[in-house]
Sequence to fold (304 residues):
Amino acid sequence: MSEIKFSLRQLEYFVAIAEAGTLSDAAARLRVSQPGLSQSLTELERALGVQLAVRRKAHGVTLTPSGAQVLRHARDLLRRAQDLGSAASGGAALTGVLSIGCYVTLGPTMLPALLQEFSKLHPGLTLDFVEGTQDVLQRRLLNGELDLAILYDMEIQPEVARAVIGTMRPHILLPADHRLAGEARVSLVDLTDDPMVLLDAPPSSQNTLALFERFGVVPYVRYRPSTFELTRALVGRGMGYALLVQRPANDRTYEGNQVVIKEIAEPIDPQRVLVAWPRAIRLNRRAEAFVEFCRDRGGAADGA
Fold:
């Protein structure tokens, strides 16, 4: 076995520099001196035989292509080191940090329960989360910034592994005084001339338009909000209808206007909800436990 010429501390410092973007900010975050941090980066580059970053005065630190690759592996190694430390202490309890990404519309109705219930099972674990669109979350997964992400089964990259943790059926959202509000089911064809409020959070908008195209309907898209609640608010004011997947328990918008959910008359398949991770990286103990928790919870995302 060849000699390892770098330390976990050097990797930790390198990750901090990459995430902070400047040596001064990373030094403040780590509570170490800036010269010492700079020296650590130089020594790590010497040990690996590659330049990891370009340092420009007043312009911060920019990773080289080699640096970006090393960053992904460094994050993985540091997470595994946390696992090793936990196992060596003789305890089965999970500790450390688990970073979870969640698609923006799934966040409000799904993420709080998952975080709360999993935290009760593993009180020694720190759960961090971020919200984002699916393209951004998948990129952050593959860059090693996130352990896991909760996504819809839409436009999943080949490099991303996944497990199904629930399903949700799309529906039509109407203002309470809409002419079709009294119907049990609503056909997409009947909405052809109505203004549509299209939630524009990739890949939601593409998926919605593809669904209309499948049934030969061309919707009249009038508004393109990027958030779930603004979409509901516009519908609540009678400014259009929306096709959504999430089903909040409350039938009122933030302004107090009533909206109604209607099933779609056309045969629409349920939308699968996934927990995803980089295919090339073996899950650490924390991530494995969360994936199994979501699977065992069975139907946690079912909203149909």
About this structure: The chain has a mean pLDDT of 88.
